[in-house]
Amino acid sequence: MMKRFARCLLWLVVLSLLLSSGLIYLTLRQGESVSRSLFSQHGSFLGQVFEGIQAADTADSNYKDMVHEGDGQAVHTSQCFIPDVELYHSSVSKYLRRDTPSLRCDRTKHKPDLTFVKGDLLVVNDTSIASYGSLDYCEFVEIIRPEHSDSSYELGKKRFKFKDRAVIKKPFIKVYCYSSNNSLIYQNLHATTPTKNYLKHLKENLLIRHKRMGYLERLNVLMVGLDSVSRLNFYRQFPKTLSVLKERLSAYELYGYNKVRDNTFINLVPMFLGKYVEETDWNETSNTGFDKHEYAWKTYGKAGYHTLFAEDAPKIAIWNYEKKGFSQPPADYYLRPFSLAMAATKKMWHNDFHCFGDRLETDITLDYVSKFIETRQNAPYFAFTFLTRPTYENLNQNTDASHSAFLNSLIDHGLLENTMVIYFSDHGARHSDILSTYIGKLEERLPAMFISLPSWFIRKYPQTAQNLQVNQRRLTTPFDIHELLRDVLRFKGQPKIHSKAESRAYSLFDRVPENRSCKTATIDDHWCTCLEQKSVSVNSAPVKKAAELIITSINNMTRAHRDKCVELKLEKITEALQSSPQDKLLTFKMSVNDVIGRKVYYGDEALGRVIIYHVIIKVSPSGAVYHGTVRYEAASNSYHLSGDISNSSTYGDSSWCISLHSLKKFCYCDVQRSR
To answer: Which CATH number, 3.40.50.300, 3.30.70.360, 3.10.450.10, 3.20.20.140, labels domain 532-663?
Structure first.
């Protein structure tokens, strides 16, 4: 009954939007019905919203095909409306595959691993020996991180020989096994997390000092990131993991989690540092690393926590791709030297570099995290891992089985009973044809974000839990995750309810203001999902002016490198959306009283109406597709570029001639390498 009432209410809301926007005028007579097709013809945005509403009546109850709770709206506050749409909407279904199997390693194409690690023992697997013929002996050597280097690894000088098992006290080792004629028949790498006694005592002293500050709880933090997975695509590609998060961990889902910048690095810096990259001293010309910055793992380490930092795909690691990385290990347990050694052992890789030996790279990384958690005993920890390779450039690829098994194992062994778990992504797909649709652009800006807290914590602090419940349907950003991490570390059990949006960041233990907008959250127009949008003709004069401004801006950025980068020409405008602030925002004058007799007064429209044009253009000779946002200011009759311009094409080697990372997506080299 309540769901039926909510749907009716939503129909009335959308009808009022249509009437107030002037898109359609209806005279409703008693007994007349209004079909969905009548509405869907008035712009792709409204059509998608209504199809999402209709789908709610017939959607399956399982995680794969459900239209999410909210009956057509992910967020609906006074300053932000974000529609929630069907997972397999007709406009995007051709880009999606249903029931994609989880990545796995085909063991028929690779011999089974001959060695494995159990606790602090390196063991020869007797059942695998037959696959290698004869085995005489094995030996292992330590993998070492060179001092002040984040881009290389070294092998220790001493090798340790063994027959069937050996005690290992080093975190990273490489194993070699030989036949009776001394031929190399097997090699592999193993990562462990041995307890560091000196570290344990140091951390205990820090914890004593930290406790004197009067903080009430000491939660562990586990953060698992997936590259390029939107909230909707998490439902499509990770249904088993979603089920664990929702059903076993009772995770909160942030339906309005909006990215604030384009790619991974510039979205995660706000999350872990609380600043935009441009607010730090780093830029593309910097010749120093990131050691001096107070990232969250460093803050937790200073408070006595054991810390872990683990990524896959080291060539494109977040703080290393075309950057200096870290001079000193950023965390107590740092996987990068091991990952570099894996990358260099090229004969072990197969299945498009997803499998190393008979194991997925994802499983190896998650196993390292599991071992770290298992060996912490009663020591508090902060663990951050980010998995890039499986989902970076493939909308229909996943490691769902790996992640669900990882979580289920931790839960089954009681290892998350004092842990805040954050499963998240940096953004949605950025290099996919799905971006040609409105829903694709919506997904790119709304990454997955799930937060789980221990059940005892929820019971003990009900106001905090209630705030999190409310915040699920508020506009949120990576800056709020940073504030949450600060709050967990300094928790005093006194959550706040903010009545006005006066800050760009709020702890999710507090209640995010209802009147928060993209402007107060400092989200650029280009990335903001709150704006009301409608399709406009690509031949209209304003759209043509916007497109010319975008192509001119691109060429201006590469002008200084014209001897390398050709001048791009506008080939065609492929799509245009027009967005504008809500009429009530523009005409609001004042309000009196809060509850009884509450009244809102409206007046003349504020001067300087702003219209935002989201334009997609194709350029020549590169054939690249660019997405740009242009602001038209009526007061001055002028057009201005708003935010940055993104390239939804895979530019690869086409920009080989220029090393400046910020220009690679705009530069098409005059001389193209032969393929």
So the answer is: 3.10.450.10
